[in-house]
Amino acid sequence: MIRSNRIRRQAVRARRAQSRAQARIRRGPATLATHAIAAGLGVKAARTVAASLRKAAAKLGVVGVTGVAYRKGRARACVRYTRQQVAVIVTVYRPRKPAYVLAASKLALAA
Fold first, then answer.
1. Neighbouring residues of 49: CB distance < 8 A, sequence distance ≥ 6
2. Residue 51 and residue 54: Cα distance in Å, rounded?
3. Percent over 90 (pLDDT), the chain
4. What is the pLDDT of residues 36-68, one digit of tens each?
5. Which listed residue, 46, 69, 72, 98, has the most CB atoms within 10 A of its CB?
6. Helix axes 43-60, 98-110, angle to 10 degrees
């Protein structure tokens, strides 16, 4: 595949994931990974940030709504948080990587 086409497809894929995540958040509470994707991170980076945010949520005692997430036909337990809860959690989160710092600032402003 031509390199420029691959880059364009990656950009479209990232925009699509971000807009879907934003739509999911508008409908109600969402997982921390969804909030991170909506802030502009890729899926792999969003999982990393979500794990750190879960630790921060435990420190603060922020409790989300438990639910069930489905992927490839399998159900798994998940915890969903509102925008306001994520903004509170981000106050404790101290990322070092520049992309994560930018995402944390977007998450804090989203509330």
1. 32, 33, 36, 41, 95, 100, 103, 104
2. 5
3. 93
4. 999 999 999 999 999 999 999 999 999 999 999
5. 46
6. 60
